[in-house]
Write a structure and sequence with these properties.
The chain has 186 residues and is mainly alpha-helical. It has 6 helices and no strands.
Length: 186
């Protein structure tokens, strides 16, 4: 059984790594880390929930920190709180599903994909419109009075981006860590 101190340290380390990776990806990927087409590379760390329950609060806290920092960096203001609350909720739900289904890793990694696709896509049209995006990227579809179309677009693009991250980066990360014994299974 892991000590409380060890558990809290693990939570803190996971939170710090997630927040740092998210903010670094913002610098190099820009709106691909936040936006209608998302490749948030730090989401690959959700695979840690296959190995330790400390990943659930760690990833959630890391997401809160990164999304709160993005309010300042992007100038999204109060609308950015949508991402702090609901984006972090999506990460928490995805990590919890991953932990609960950890005995079936490929299925478990679908948790973050589904949670982010459903939750992030629901508030993303509001956030994007508030910071000046008035059309769906790569189309001429206006956001004005077309929340449903933007939700469907986000459902597909956010889900696809998350799936790429989870299965192309997250799964190999899990396999490497599990094989090396770096993160002890709980």
């Amino acid at each position: 059984m892991e000590s409380k101190t060890s558990y809290l340290a693990r939570v803190g380390i996971i939170a710090a790594v997630y927040a740092a990776c998210t903010l670094i990806s913002l610098l190099f990927l820009g709106s691909l880390a936040w936006g209608p087409v998302q490749f948030r590379i730090s989401e690959a760390l959700c695979a840690l929930a296959l190995l330790t329950p400390a990943a659930i609060p760690g990833l959630t806290l890391g997401c809160v920190i990164a999304n709160a920092a993005n309010i300042v960096l992007s100038g999204s203001g109060m609308l950015g709180l949508l991402d702090v609350v609901f984006g972090s909720l999506a990460t928490c739900v995805g990590a919890l599903f991953t932990w609960k289904m950890r005995h079936r890793p490929l299925l478990a990694l679908a948790g973050p994909v589904i949670a982010n696709a459903l939750i992030v896509s629901a508030y993303l049209p509001i956030l994007l419109k508030g910071i000046g995006f008035y059309t769906i990227p790569f189309t001429s579809i206006s956001l004005d009075n077309s929340w449903a179309l933007m939700y469907l677009f986000g459902l597909v693009t956010t889900g696809a981006g998350e799936a790429v991250i989870m299965y192309v980066l997250g799964y190999p990360l899990y396999r490497s860590l599990a094989k090396s014994g770096v993160v002890a299974r709980a």
